[in-house]
Amino acid sequence: MADKTAILSVGIDVGTSTTQVVFSKLQMDNAGGYFSVPRVAIVDKEVVYKSEVYMTPLKTDVLIDTDARDIVAAEFRKAGYRPEDTDSGAVIITGESARKENSDAVLKSLSDFAGDFVVSAAGPDMESLIAGKGSGAWQYSMDHHCRVANLDIGGGTTNVVLFEDGETLARGCLDIGGRLICMNPQGIITKVSPAAAVMAQAAGVSVSVGDRCDELKLTAVTRQMAAALNAYLGVGTKDIDAILRQIKTPGSSDFPVPEKVQAVFFSGGVADLIYHESADTWAYGDIGVLLGRAIRESRLFTDFQKMEPGETIRATVVGAGTYTTTISGSTITYSDDIFPLKNIPVIKLDEELQEACFAGETEPVIRRIQWVLGQNDEEHFILAMPGKRNPGYMEMKRAAASIRQIMDRVQPPGEPILLVIESDIAKAMGQMIRQQPDLKRQVVAIDSIHVEDGEYVDMGKPMMNGMVIPVVVKTLIFG
């Protein structure tokens, strides 16, 4: 008989223009039988509450107002939940908000308020992935076995992700958004971002703070932005690589020009203005309407199959609330009182170093770990490895002894041994490590989770009667 449980997940997004909160129910199911190894997975996701869309409160051009926390607290009350009710989720600061001077403090404040295992995360690559999942592009790529791009166009940035059959092929981000140029109700320009200035120069027009809005000039700027997005996806002009380099969002990955993109999704606040034109050009006090129009008139709208997502402006916050948490395998070992664990860096062994570990050769692994730790002054970390299929007893015994010796060399006494193994041997490995003589460390060994070197992992308290652990894998954290 299946063993089912539901967890409450919250997504909180503080973006360049807007701040939103979403609550979701994630349904977990154990599909294993009475006489087989449990197989627990998240089988259903349902958004149960969406907040209104708030303008992100800013104290100055470089500071987020602490009213953002008041917004979140009010939405918890409206939804009928308390912070302690949440089991998982994410707080993310996105777009230009991620560059504000106090963004890390605001992020920590919101994360601390929202629940023990509500993680804080930042970075354009992660936002690209979350938005692509929240919009439905990721699911579409799996359902139709095709290559799909999602462009999440907000106030300050455009996050782009490329999926193929559920796999992430590329992520990137450009400083293109609807609030890069703003104006007051009198039609006077009050803001021109550096990226907008680059675009204006490329378009051959002059746009400065204090100027009166000139629709022809601003249309030229937004058409240049649309041309840059076209080039990013491999259509249109090929001679703007220098411009793309200038407007690449700091911290984002390189985005190789893709081939054979079959469908394109648009999400983010500007997406609504792409799919549904506004009659009032200056309705939002920015160039969002013009940017939506320019994209709709570009090759992005004619060269690809256009898909309208289930979520546009809420794609990122829905993705944060429903797609950030995964579930470990059920063949795991852990110490009961160690969770939750947050922001633990990953050091992943390649196949060669893993073979050395299983052969009892510790020195190559120790050198690798010591080099990594020397780069970032960390003392605690997760040791990750691909694992083996059906390793022999003696191999496992040698590997367990090796891991214990390695950790004794590279970690201070008392630090826990944290392992993530992709194949389902974590429970046996963890138990063998625990059996090492005079071991005075806690041990956590989980499997069925894919991580990469340099990522960060959060682990929540065990669920489903201790069978599984909720896990979040992050590419970047603040601080």
Structural features, described:
With 479 residues, the chain is of the alpha/beta class. The protein folds into three domains: 3-122, 2-Layer Sandwich (Nucleotidyltransferase, domain 5); 127-314, Nucleotidyltransferase, domain 5; 327-474. 32% of the residues lie in helices and 26% in strands. It is built from 14 helices and 22 strands. The chain has helices at residues 67-79, 103-114, 124-135, 137-144, 194-203, 215-232, 241-246, 269-275, 288-296, 315-322, 351-358, 363-376, 393-410, 426-434; strands at residues 3-14, 18-30, 40-50, 54-55, 58-60, 63-64, 88-93, 119-122, 147-153, 158-164, 167-174, 181-183, 189-192, 263-267, 305-307, 326-327, 341-348, 382-385, 417-421, 443-447, 456-459, 470-474. A seven-stranded mixed beta sheet has the order 16-22-21-17-18-19-20, covered by helices on one side. Strands 1, 2, 3, 4, 7 and 8 form a six-stranded mixed beta sheet that branches. It is elongated, with a radius of gyration of 24 Å.
